Fold this protein.
Amino acid sequence: MLHLRLVVPRRASAAVVDFLVGDERVTGVVVLPGAGRDPEGDAVLCDVAREGASDILATLRRLGLDDDGSVAIEPVAASPSARARAAERAAPGSPDDAVVWEVVTDQAWADARPSWSFYAFLTLATMIAGVAVVLDSSVLVVGAMVVGPEFGAVAAAATGLALREWRLVSGALRLLVLGFALAIAITALFALAARAAGWIDADSLTAARPLTGFIWRPDKWSFVVALLAGTAGTLSLTAGRSNALVGVFISVTTVPAAGNLALALALWVPSEMGGAAEQLVVNLSGMLLAGVVTLLVQRLVWHRVARSRAPLDETARPAAP
C-alpha cells in the first residue's frame, strides 16, 4: 500500500473525495476541510493499492490537483486490515510488479541533479578502484563498486529515454560524463603523487594481475553482464526493492574501469588505456540499453492492464468540475 497526502482546491474537493471513496482500490480516506494553508484547500489522506496508484494519480490530475493542489506519496510499512486487503485484491497484478511512474520519474529527476555528494562518492570509489588495481585486490574492487553512485544517473537517463523526457536524458548523461571525467582526473593526480613518492611505477600496472586483469580486457560477457545488471537494477527501482541494487553495483565494471584508466593515464601505459575506456563505455551502454527496454516493457504491460480496467473505472468516476 501507498499513502497519499493531498491538498485539494476547494472547487475540486467534492469530486476528488467522491472518486477516492468510490474506488475500491482506495481505503482509509480522511478529509480535513480547510486544513491546507500552502496551497490552500482541503487536506485529504488515503491509502491506495500500489498496483493502482499511477491510474489513481492520473485521475486526480484530471480532477485539478495539478493546477492548485499538491500530492505527496509515502510507502506504508504495514496495513493489517480487512479493508486494505480488499483494496489489494481489487487492484490488478502483484504489488511487486507494479510501477508507480510518478515515483520513478521524480526519483529520476533527483538522480540526474548534480550534487557534491555524487562527485565525491564517485571520486572516492574510483580512487579505491585505483588502489585495488595496484594491489590486485578483488575485495577492494567490490568495495569500489558498492561505493560508486553512477547507477542512479544511468537509470535516470534510461527513464528519460523511455518517457521521452529529453531534458532528463541530457542532464543525466552530462552528470555521468562530468562525474567520471572529474573522478578519473583526481585519481590520476593521486597516482602521479604516489609515483613521485616512489610508491608505484608503470610495473605496478603491467605486472601480472590475476584478480583484476579483467578490468581492462572487455569481452562479450562484459556486455551481457551489463545488460543483466541494468535489467535487475531497473526492476529493483520500479518495484521499490532498493536492497537489490547492491547486487547490481558489484556486478558491473564501471568504477573499476575508471580507476584502471586513471592509473594508465598517470603512469602512461597506453596498452591499458583503450581497454579500460572500452570497458567503461560497454558497461554504461549495456546498463542504459537494458534500462530503457525494461521500462518500455513495463510501460506497455501496465498500459494494457489499465485499459482492461478502464470501462469499470469510468462508471465509478465523477465528472471533472
Q: What stands out?
A: The longest strand covers residues 26-37. The CA atoms of residues 16 and 63 lie 7 Å apart. Residues 270-316 form the longest helix (47 residues). Confidence is low (pLDDT under 50) at residues 311-321.
